[in-house]
What does this fold into?
Amino acid sequence: MELHIHELSVSQQFQGQGAGRKLLLTALEHADKRELHSLTLTTFRDLPWNEPFYRRFGFETLSPAEISPRLTTVLNNEINHGLPGERRCAMRLKLR
Ligand SMILES: CC(C)(COP(=O)(O)OP(=O)(O)OC[C@H]1O[C@@H](n2cnc3c(N)ncnc32)[C@H](O)[C@@H]1OP(=O)(O)O)[C@@H](O)C(=O)NCCC(=O)NCCS
It folds into this structure.
């Protein structure tokens, strides 16, 4: 089973003080304690605090062939809500 991070957001006035990192670590610990297989999320490829930030945590960007039907649905829903699909990616952190 996977834990999907639907959204990670910190109020602008509190950004850059470590809250985002702590939130992500909390999700990671939660998934690990429950012996989940991995964490997944979708994010922007080209924003420094999106894909590169998650990569530093060990998330890998999935190739089109690796994207599961569930994540494909998530990406398609985002496009239907107006996000630019070519700038979005799906990522996964394998825990076990
Ligand atoms: C992404 C977000 C949740 C990070 O929260 P935060 O509390 O500012 O993050 P932290 O202070 O814990 O910093 C986390 C990392 O992001 C990097 N970062 C944060 N703001 C940044 C910026 N403006 N430019 C570049 N890097 C940035 C920090 O360098 C840090 O990396 P490091 O810990 O490896 O050094 C926050 O910026 C946010 O809410 N952004 C808008 C919504 C968003 O993009 N959410 C993610 C969608 S998937």
Remarks:
- Helices lie at 19-33, 51-56, 69-80.
